[in-house]
């Protein structure tokens, strides 16, 4: 039995500026996180994204349709308390990044991976100073500690909890910390990053067709991805 969703109880949704940031108000009352903390965002743009999700609710409040709000709650209740643990998890992703592991065949898929993934590996090397090693198959390959350390410098520069939570969300959704950081730094668009993350899956679909249930799940995850990217960008706006 599913727990019934709470009914929508408010009429107006507004953003208010305070001393420590921007809060979302429902009928004049500030929203709190599940942990009962004040839901305060670092920029007006980030707060407006959350406010828009509340405004878009109809008869009930459905958290499944509020990815930016869930991300903000996670940032405030969790990431802000343990940012180092989140940064370390991102480095674990970087140590076994999806982009490192290449297919052994067929040749056309190998070529597609090379053409589309190698530019990001080159970018990590030239722009981030992280020189990673590629491998065929799925056997784990240990990356140079210097590469992980260089990548970590750029992760540690992201300190704002909402931005860090957004980067972590993009990483877990794609399986690639390199892709996520490339999106965060504006090297590629979020739509391009999402497509690159599903290169292998799209190859399979081209040859064998697409499962409806798998498509629905992917569409839902894409919405989460777009919300995370939007929240990251919003933390950078004035």
From TrEMBL:
**GO terms under biological process:** proton-transporting ATP synthase complex assembly
Decide whether keyword Transit peptide is in the record: yes
Mind telling me which InterPro entries this protein's record contains? ATP12_ATP_synth-F1-assembly, ATP12_ATP_synth-F1-assembly_N, ATP12_ortho_dom_sf
Specify the signal sequence span: none
Keyword Chaperone in record = yes
Question: Organism's domain of life?
Answer: Bacteria
Q: Alphabetically list the UniProt keywords.
A: Chaperone, Transit peptide
The record's family statement is:
Belongs to the ATP12 family.
> What is the protein name stated in its UniProt record?
ATPase
Q: What species is this protein from? A: Paramesorhizobium deserti
């Amino acid at each position: 039995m599913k727990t019934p969703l709470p009914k929508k109880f408010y009429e107006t949704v507004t953003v208010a500026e305070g001393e420590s940031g921007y809060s979302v108000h429902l009928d004049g009352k500030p929203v709190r996180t599940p942990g009962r903390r004040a839901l305060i965002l670092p920029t007006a743009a980030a707060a407006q994204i959350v406010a828009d999700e509340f405004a878009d609710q109809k008869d009930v409040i459905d958290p499944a349709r509020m990815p930016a709000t869930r991300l903000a709650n996670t940032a405030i209740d969790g990431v802000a308390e343990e940012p180092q643990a989140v940064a370390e998890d991102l480095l674990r992703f970087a140590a076994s990044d999806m982009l490192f592991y290449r297919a052994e065949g067929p040749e056309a898929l190998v070529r597609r991976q090379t053409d589309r993934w190698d530019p990001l590996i080159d970018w990590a090397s030239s722009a981030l100073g992280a020189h990673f090693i590629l491998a065929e198959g799925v056997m784990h390959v240990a990356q140079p500690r210097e590469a992980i350390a260089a990548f970590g410098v750029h992760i540690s520069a992201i300190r704002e909890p909402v931005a860090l939570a957004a980067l972590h969300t993009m990483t877990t959704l794609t399986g690639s910390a390199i892709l996520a950081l490339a999106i965060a730094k504006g090297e590629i668009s979020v739509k391009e990053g999402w497509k690159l993350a599903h290169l292998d899956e799209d190859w399979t679909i081209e040859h064998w067709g697409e499962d409806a249930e798998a498509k629905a799940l992917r569409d839902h995850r894409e919405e989460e991805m777009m919300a995370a990217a939007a929240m990251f960008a919003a933390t950078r706006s004035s």
